[in-house]
C-alpha cells in the first residue's frame, strides 16, 4: 500500500508517506524496493525542500515526518526495505535540524513513529500478532524498542529468536 498526505495544522506540517511491504528481501522486485525508498524517503526529502522557503517566513513552524511502527528502534525481519527507508528518514530529520539550527532558521523537523494501529491495512497480520501472543500497542512494545535500541542482540534473545519460526511461517517467500 502506498499513500501520501500533507496536512497543515496551525504551524505544523505533517508529511505522511507510506509504503509497507512485508516479505523477504529476495522476494522484492527491484521496482518494489525503488518505490519503497522513493515513497518513504525521497518524497519526504523533496517535500521538505519545497516547503522550507515558505515555512521559514512563518515563526516557529514544524514539519512532522511520520514513520511507521518501531522503524527507528526495531529492525523487523521481512520489512528490510521499508525499515531501511524509514531509518533514512529519521537520520534525514536529525541532519536537517542541525542544518536549520546552524542557519538560524525557526523551522524544526520532528520524526513521529506511532505504535501499530488496528486498521484495515493490518488485516493480513492480525492472526500473526495473535499467534505470537503479543499486543501491537502498549508499554511492552515501547520497552522492547528501547531494549533493541540499546542492545539488538539482547532483543533478539528476548523476542526475535522466540518468534522467528512464527514470523517465517507468515512472511516467508512461500506465502508471498
Tell me what you see in this structure.
- It contains five helices and four strands.
- Strands 1-2-3-4 form a four-stranded mixed beta sheet, with helices on one face.
- The chain has 176 residues and is of the alpha/beta class.
- It has a single domain, classed as Rossmann fold, CATH 3.40.50.720.
- Strand 3 (62-66), helix 2 and strand 4 form a beta-alpha-beta unit.
- Helix content is 50%, strand content 15%.
- The protein has helices spanning 30-55, 80-102, 126-132, 139-150, 152-171; strands at residues 2-9, 12-19, 62-66, 108-112.
- Helix 1 (30-55) runs parallel beside helix 2 (80-102) and helix 4 (139-150) crosses helix 5 (152-171).
- The chain is elongated.
Which keywords apply here?
alpha/beta; Rossmann fold; 176 residues; four-stranded mixed β-sheet
What is the SS-derived class? Answer: alpha/beta
Order of helix and strand elements from N to C terminus: EEHEHEHHH
The assigned CATH architecture is 3-Layer(aba) Sandwich
Relative helix content: 40-55%
Largest sheet: 4 strands, mixed
Number of helices: 5
CATH class term = Alpha Beta
**Backbone shape:** elongated
CATH topology: Rossmann fold
Low-pLDDT windows of residues: none
Q: Give the tally of β-strands.
A: 4
Q: How large is the share of residues in beta strands? A: 5-15%
Amino acid at each position: 500500500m502506498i499513500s501520501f498526505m500533507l496536512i497543515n495544522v496551525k504551524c505544523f506540517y505533517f508529511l505522511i508517506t507510506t509504503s509497507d511491504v512485508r516479505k523477504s528481501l529476495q522476494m522484492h522486485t527491484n521496482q518494489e524496493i525503488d518505490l519503497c525508498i522513493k515513497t518513504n524517503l525521497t518524497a519526504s526529502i523533496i517535500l521538505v525542500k519545497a516547503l522550507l522557503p515558505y515555512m521559514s517566513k512563518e515563526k516557529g513552524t514544524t514539519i512532522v515526518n511520520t514513520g511507521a511502527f518501531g522503524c527507528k528502534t526495531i529492525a523487523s525481519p521481512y520489512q528490510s526495505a521499508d525499515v531501511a527507508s524509514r531509518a533514512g528518514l529519521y537520520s534525514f530529520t536529525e541532519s536537517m535540524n542541525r542544518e536549520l539550527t546552524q542557519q538560524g532558521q525557526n523551522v524544526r523537523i520532528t520524526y513521529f513513529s506511532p505504535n501499530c494501529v488496528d486498521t484495515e491495512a493490518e488485516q493480513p497480520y492480525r492472526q500473526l500478532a495473535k499467534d505470537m501472543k503479543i499486543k501491537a500497542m502498549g508499554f511492552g512494545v515501547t520497552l522492547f524498542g528501547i531494549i533493541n535500541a540499546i542492545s539488538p542482540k539482547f532483543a533478539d534473545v528476548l523476542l526475535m529468536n522466540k518468534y522467528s519460526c512464527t514470523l517465517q511461517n507468515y512472511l516467508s517467500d512461500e506465502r508471498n
